[in-house]
Amino acid sequence: MTKPFFDPAQLKKRHRAERRFRLYGQLAIGLALTFLLLIFASLIPRGYGAFQQTEIKLDIVFDAGVIGDGGPQADYQKLARTALRKIFPTVSGRKQKRKLYQLISDGAGYQLNNLVKADAGVIGTTRSLWVLASDDVDMYAKGNVGKDLEEGDRILQDIQIDWIETLQKSGQMEARFNSRFFTLGDSREPELAGIFGAMTGSFFTLLVCFGLSFPLGVLAAIYLQEFARKGWFSDFIEININNLAAVPSIVFGLLGLAIFLNFLGLPRSAPLVGGIVLALMTLPTIIIASRAALKSVPPSIREAALALGASPMQGVFHHVLPSAMPGIMTGSIIGMAQALGESAPLLMIGMVAFIVDIPADFIDPATALPVQIFIWADSPERAFVEKTAAGILVLLAFLVVMNLSAILLRRKFERRW
Length: 417
Prior knowledge:
Strand content: 5-15%
Number of helices: 17
Largest sheet: 3 strands, antiparallel
Number of domains: 2
Shape: elongated
Mean pLDDT: 87
CATH superfamily of the largest domain: MetI-like
Helix content: 55-70%
């Protein structure tokens, strides 16, 4: 009797092991998706409120006797207070008036000031305008602050809550889309705080980072993969590049603080320095990804180019590099996404400063989106809680778009050899 070619029991054992391995993989993917859904499930309820802002509709009389010709000394906040007092004519006394005025934001005056700057013809007229409510009123209107506590334990007193409910019933108070969140810089007042300044700072920082890390990383990868002689020196460089990819990002921040700020004297809290630091951090990732993409190009491409009379450099830059470019771009985008989410190195070089103005160039003081989220998370006002969650959602949206674009680029341009 001949011995069977394979053992049926051993084959069944291998099949069971394969099914277990597939099950483990499916469980790992399911667990990762569950954690991702939990993150979004905890952030969306907290952050969606920041995309709406409570506003009060007031009939503003642009009295020339109050604001004159609209100069910088004009008291625009008084116009909003006068209009609010007309809605509640029974309010009297300095204490009650002060409580009433707390319903509107200090930013209401800036709104009216900007309107007069845009059109001086409004002086002497009456306009029905929506002005910002204060952050405490906004929190109450959104249901984040209730009136179940004792009056002494609440920021808003009973009479203020009565005024708020009166405005809501008359349709003079409602939540409207908060476009200022995307068009303004940071502010001490939560209702005026926006992410445009941080987004602009992140844009300038990533522009410097990409401009330095991409060409240097690709050229270094080409040299190490295509031209460097294999030996102890190239092995030493390769080992250190791999080690740098695992170095904590805050170390690069310390390097930037010591060299670029203290030694070279570059401007503090500037996107230029932030971009250089992030470029140093991103370089190892781009070099490793570029070398892997170059290595995936078949040797026959190089040999064919050399056989047709091309020089080694022409073969690399005219044939190998274009074939490897999809993988290089994918690795570079992933590296930029990593740089976008970094905050530790930027904290070390001073980009944690409170910046109100929108940066106009690479040396203006600026902050970045992750750092802005960190600043808001450290603020005591309750209204900054939803700003923090909303900032995280915006940052996650950018990261998802960048990673998705990397996947689409790879699928569209990659070649299967």
